[in-house]
Amino acid sequence: MYKFFLYVLAVGTAALMGLATLTYAEAPKVLTQVPGYYRIQLGQFEITALYDGAIELDTKLLKNTTATDLQRLLSRMFVGNPKMQTAVNAYLINTGKNLVLVDTGAAKLFGPSLGFVLQNMKASGYEPTQVDTVIITHLHGDHMGGLNDAGGQPLFSKAKILVSQADNDFWLSQKVADEAPEAMKPFFKMARDSAAPYLASGQWATFTEGSVLVPGIQAVKASGHTPGHTAYAVESDGQKLLIWGDLVHAHAVQFARPGVSIEFDVDQKQAIATRRSIMKTAAAEKFLVAGMHLPFPGIGHVRADGKGSYSWVPIEFAPLTKVVNP
Amino acid sequence: MYKFFLYVLAVGTAALMGLATLTYAEAPKVLTQVPGYYRIQLGQFEITALYDGAIELDTKLLKNTTATDLQRLLSRMFVGNPKMQTAVNAYLINTGKNLVLVDTGAAKLFGPSLGFVLQNMKASGYEPTQVDTVIITHLHGDHMGGLNDAGGQPLFSKAKILVSQADNDFWLSQKVADEAPEAMKPFFKMARDSAAPYLASGQWATFTEGSVLVPGIQAVKASGHTPGHTAYAVESDGQKLLIWGDLVHAHAVQFARPGVSIEFDVDQKQAIATRRSIMKTAAAEKFLVAGMHLPFPGIGHVRADGKGSYSWVPIEFAPLTKVVNP
Questions:
Q1: Closest by Cα among B18, B52, B27 to B37
Q2: Are the C-beta atoms of residues A98 and A132 closer than 8 Å to each other?
Q3: Cα–Cα nearest to A105, from A94, A91, A95, A124
Q4: What is the band of A254 on the pLDDT scale with cuts at 50, 70, 90?
């Protein structure tokens, strides 16, 4: 066994031979993180992952598991317990014809550790006024909160905002909100407040499953997490990416155990069935996937490990010209 | 089975309801990658991973394996074959007292896809003249080429350059170079050319195994890849990171099979023994490791999977204040 760390802090002088004495000033620590964006090319499309930040979720939110299995799975991926870091991502797609933002982050709806999509979009070289289409995977606050600035003013003045009919009809319904459990009511309010300016301006629109929203981007039914939770199949020159929204909240757990759901799933049973089905297809067809709560940039592949269990294989950091599909 | 990708390219009009017609200009693609640096805090130390770029290595360079096992291992990690992307990383450590660069990248010794350490160091907020100590893991061109600029002038005018005695005596020896196989001779010339300006200025110095080079950074014997190949144990406030140089060239293969070596290893048998020993310790003690040829930023943990097999678990992208040891 190496014992190297025992001695690192020892007061000692290195045995440096032949060294002329040099003097220098201490360099102040910079202490800033790299901007939170990352790009890939998918055929002719430019895809930019945008980091909204990360929150600590309580692992007790995970359902259909045991404390023992949970601890084993989190520990093998070096993820914290009972608080696990959970990223929030969005994706900006430049097809050459359309500039499409998929989800917008949380803005300040869920505290100060989120809300950086706008800043990172700007760092990546785009302004929100250039976006012509915003697609929302589902109407939870950490996906649509970033539609507006801190004062509630719309950021995407030239965009159409596309939302699945089923989520629109659920989250914006006064009747559904009135009948919801008290703990759920704030989520309905967030959805209505975020949507309001765009409903007023006529920029808000709904789509049904299977719609091609812009050339190369199609809505794919992925319900369960919410009634209208939607994935987006993106394809250019035969290169494929499925942006799967909230199919996974806990990568260390739900790839190995797709049957584990999370408290936030409106229909737990359907959410599990959807996860199993999409993971099976992604592993078989080996296309790229991107997820809003996978570790940033949240882009990678799904590997089937047998017995209904999967692994997450993140893409490797690469220059922009790197082809990403195997 | 979902068939979503069959329809993405279909000429179709989305069923968009209630949408006012909007007009917009096409946004030009930005087509730049995020700067190649990434930061963590390790106790009081600021660690900045610096990306030198990536090269495509021929998987036939890997030894002690079979074509079948190689293909299986590469494929399960979605890594190319026969050309696998291999990153080149360096690490800048600001201890508060010292600014230490561990390796310098290849500059232009290995083609245009490498040589970006200097650019990324500047993007991260540091100048090479602020560096007071450069530590080299071993005297291969992709680790020491970046000591000088394109014209051969030294970049680190105020730094001492620290090299293990064993690598110094091997790579800078005229006698060893003369006796080396013809194919190896260019590597000796690269080492001597890169070292020359610093030898002349008196900035070059050697150390022996176990030396504490600056407070908090200790040289750890890791020979095999080269005679003086050295890892560095970094520790602050009980947080630990082992920068292990070239312990791994093919992450998809050599974690699962530490017994697989690479053509570049000077002593294949010793390189394998060193890899097994360090992986065993890293997995048992759960400290962070960083590697010069692991996918950028190349920082993460080692998990023991039993039967002498390991997995690479990269850290998750996080804000700078995130504690990184579990």
A1: B52
A2: yes
A3: A91
A4: very high
CA Rg value for chain B? 22
Of the ranges A149-153, A168-172, B90-94, B156-160, which one carries the lowest mean pLDDT score?
Answer: A149-153
Residues of chain A in contact with residue B212, where contact means CB-CB under 8 angstroms, are: 7-8, 10, 12-14
B contacts of A223 (beta carbons < 8 Å) = none
CB-nearest partner of A19 from B41, B46, B205: B205
- Confirm if B107 and B151 have CB atoms less than 8 A apart: no
Sheet with A309-314, edge to edge strand ranges: A212-214, A217-221, A230-236, A239-243, A288-290, A299-306, A309-314
ipTM, 2 dp:
0.94
Contact B285 A5 (CB under 8 A): yes
CA distance A139 to A64: 25
What was the pLDDT predicted at B26?
Answer: 85
B31–A46 C-beta distance less than 8 A: yes
Inter-chain touch A99–B27, beta carbons under 8 Å = yes
DSSP A196: H
**Tokens standing for residue B308:** 């002498």
Antiparallel, parallel or unpaired: β B309-314 and B299-306 = antiparallel
- Cβ(B236)–Cβ(B213) under 8 Å? no
Separation between Cα atoms, residue A108 and residue B178, nearest integer Å: 66
CATH fold label, A39-314:
Metallo-beta-lactamase; Chain A (3.60.15)
Query: Residue A291's CB: how many other CB atoms inside 10 A?
Result: 24
| Residue B17 tokens, joined | 């309801």
Judge contact between A219 and A230, C-beta under 8 A: yes
Overall average pLDDT of the A249-269 stretch: 97
Q: What's the pLDDT band for B151 if we cut at 50, 70, 90?
A: confident
Tell me if B115 sits within 8 A of B78, measured CB to CB.
no
Cβ atoms of B311 and B305 closer than 8 Å: yes
3-state helix, strand, coil in chain B (%, to 5): 25, 30, 45
Q: Which two tokens stand for residue B35?
A: 């700067």
**To the nearest whole angstrom, how far is the Cα of B119 from the nearest Cα of chain A?**
14
CATH architecture of B35-314: 4-Layer Sandwich (3.60)
Alpha-carbon distance of B304 to B301, in angstroms, equals: 10
Give the tens place of pLDDT for each residue, B32-65: 999 999 999 999 999 999 999 999 999 999 999 9
**Residue-level pLDDT at A150:** 82
Neighbours of A3 (CB within 10 A): 9
Give the β-pairing of B99-102 and B133-135: parallel
As a whole number, mean pLDDT of residues A88-114 equals 97
- Rounded Cα distance between B279 and A53, Å, is 32
